[in-house]
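Records of this kind hold a single protein each, on a pair of labelled lines. Below, a sample record shows both lines together.
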Amino acid sequence: MDSIRYRKASNFVRDISWRQVRRTGLTLLLILLLALFLLFVTVPIASLFLRITPEAFFRSLAEPVVLDALALSLLTAAISTVIVILFGTPLSYINARREYRGKELVDTLTDLPIVLPPAVAGIALLMAFGRRGVVGEYLDAFGIQIAFTTFAVILAQVFVASPFYIRQARASFEAVDRIYEDAARTLGASRLRVLLRVTVPIAWAGLVSGAILTFARALGEFGATIMFAGNYQGRTQTMPLAIYTTMQGNIYDAISLAILLVIISFAVILAVKFVTRRKT
């Protein structure tokens, strides 16, 4: 009897020890994977800051190519974001609140730029709005040229960045409980008034997050811009294009521009987290 109890106790201790070993091993594996991932992300970013001195960084910021690229990028990204908000908000609201024939097709076309290679987006825009494009040839007859202009930069940014806002805005509108909208309508408010005074304020945090992500995506656009707008300093050369160009001549200017984009991207992530946390 005692031997049976001893064997049961031994087996119980052995099972506990084995579970502890497996749990410890799993924990160590997760820590190792997390450490490798963090190193993979942080080492390249840290290398940018280690490869340039503060003096060289601030000296590069005074270079015309850097100033022109920074000013053009901020201006075009801001305009693109405003355009996406103006056109994307009604579309997002309709898709969140209405059922209609072809809705799935509209959603698919809206999300298409996310998975579309930037070079494909660029050549598609060129075939549509270039001088010999499907639409561009008619505009060219009136002396209107879009390709290889600053407006082409904005169109490219709108094309690739709009899904980030539209998807976020639609999810935000869908999260708004309709009971608040119905209550406002029973009090005599029109649909437009309900949208502006009830729905949008409730979904505000999600809309702001989507707008911030759209601005960041537009700021970092490269492939579609260089294909459709070209790479002309002061006119179409945004920060990513300037990095590509200056790497061939002055590596410090390229690093300085890259650091600026890293700082802006980091600020964007913090802003989205702050807005989301306030919403929660």
User: Anything to note?
Assistant: The chain has a mean pLDDT of 88. The radius of gyration is 26 Å. The chain is about 80% helix and 0% strand. The chain has two domains: 1-50, 55-279.
